[in-house]
UniProtKB/TrEMBL annotation:
Belongs to the chorismate synthase family. This is Chorismate synthase. The gene is aroC. Its cofactor is FMNH2. Signal peptide: none annotated. GO terms for cellular component: cytosol. This reaction introduces a second double bond into the aromatic ring system. It is an enzyme of class 4 (lyase). FMN binds at residues 124-126, 240-241, 285, 300-304, 326. It comes from Adhaeribacter pallidiroseus. NADP(+) binds at residue 47. CDD domains: Chorismate_synthase. HAMAP family: Chorismate_synth. Keywords: Amino-acid biosynthesis, Aromatic amino acid biosynthesis, FAD, Flavoprotein, FMN, Lyase, NADP. Its EC number is 4.2.3.5.
Length: 359
């Protein structure tokens, strides 16, 4: 089972949804990086369940515990071990799923592959594992900020409701000003109302998160395998419930002619190479070109719904299931810090790898 990600800045996560703890080991973090427990906790709080009436009502404080790798708020160059204890476990809420395969969950495929599974909240395949990524991403992001790199993700679509403005037209400082994490206040209100109605209907709804990365230097990524956009796509598609990824002009670019799509170069007044447009999304030939990197990630509706559904059990017999327990009617608000974290993990690894490519 693959539980690790990254080549130089490498994380290994552990834990299950209703096990004792969830955590991460970070290898390859440079020594001397200043970071406090409060800075890591701030990102965990953005992902924490129960933070509003439009997220799961599971009550977890998600208090970070630093086991090793930091001394007097500085990384030491040794493995960093971070963990959170699960306190609001309710395994009995899932007893009816011990032998059932929930529609569009990992229950069937996980059992078919490994021959057994922890049915409590999805076990290892639960999105609670992403808590560990967010903790590691907080460390990575602190390093990136010192390099002048800024990451901003926001909810741009919920169901049929979308932000029409481009990211350049939005005030991204407003992302955390509302509980849906959309920087367009009027659209945010419509999205929140839709999620609240969806919860009342005992259903779920999906949407899209847009991410913008500013300050990326030229040269990150590889020309053949390990293209930067491919690695970002892999990172995003590793997040639970993600069904689509497109960067730059994406699928819309397929409708344009080359004369319309090409990004013309010029040299600005400071002698820096720029492009007049950015259909490339800041990446050309798999390598960052110094322009803004931007992409969109599509999330499906949460698979667990509080309505009767037909499925089968592990004996192949037809059954009727109805969701119980505590679940998100829309995963997007809590997925924003997860997208931020995975971007940070991709970029810090490429930044450290970049140090090895030239004398």
């Amino acid at each position: 089972m693959s539980n690790s990600y990254g080549k130089i800045f490498r994380i290994t996560t552990f834990g299950e949804s209703h096990g004792q703890s969830v955590g991460v080991i970070i290898d390859g973090c440079p020594a001397g990086l200043e970071i406090t427990a409060e800075e890591i906790q701030r990102e965990l709080d953005r992902r924490r369940p129960g933070q509003s009436n439009i997220t799961t009502q599971r009550k977890e404080e998600d208090e970070i515990i630093i086991l090793s790798g930091l001394y007097e708020n500085k990384t030491t160059g040794t493995p960093i071990a971070l963990m959170v204890n699960n306190k609001n476990q309710a395994g009995k809420d899932y007893s009816h799923l011990e032998h059932a395969f929930r529609p569009s969950h990992a229950d069937y495929t996980y059992t078919a592959k490994y021959g057994l599974r922890d049915h409590r909240g999805g076990g290892r395949s639960s999105a609670r594992e992403t808590l560990a990524r967010v903790a590691a991403g907080a460390v990575a992001n602190k390093y990136l900020q010192q390099q002048g790199i800024q990451i901003a993700s926001y909810v741009s679509t919920v169901g049929p409701i979308s932000v029409e403005e481009s990211y350049e037209q939005l005030n991204l400082s407003l992302i955390d000003s509302n509980k849906i994490r959309c920087p367009q206040p009027q659209v945010a209100e419509e999205m929140i109302k839709l999620v609240e109605e969806t919860r009342k209907n005992r259903d779920t709804v999906g949407g899209v998160i847009t991410c913008v990365i500013k300050g990326t230097p030229v040269g990150l990524g590889e020309p053949a395998f390990d293209k930067l956009h491919a690695e970002l796509g892999k990172a995003m598609l590793s997040i639970n419930a993600v069904k689509g990824f497109e960067y730059g002009s994406g699928f819309a670019g397929a409708k344009l002619y080359g004369s319309q799509h090409n990004d013309e170069f010029y040299t600005d007044e400071n002698g820096r190479v720029q492009t007049r447009t950015n259909h490339s999304g800041g990446i050309q030939g798999g390598i960052s070109n110094g322009q803004d990197i931007y992409f969109r990630v599509a999330f499906k509706p949460v698979a667990t719904i509080l309505q009767p559904q037909t499925s089968i059990n592990d004996q192949g017999e037809s059954i009727t299931l109805e969701g119980k327990g505590r679940h998100d009617p829309c995963v997007l608000p809590r997925a924003v810090p997860i997208v931020d974290a995975m971007v940070a993990l991709v970029l810090i690894d490429f930044l450290l790898r970049q140090r090895t490519v030239r004398v």
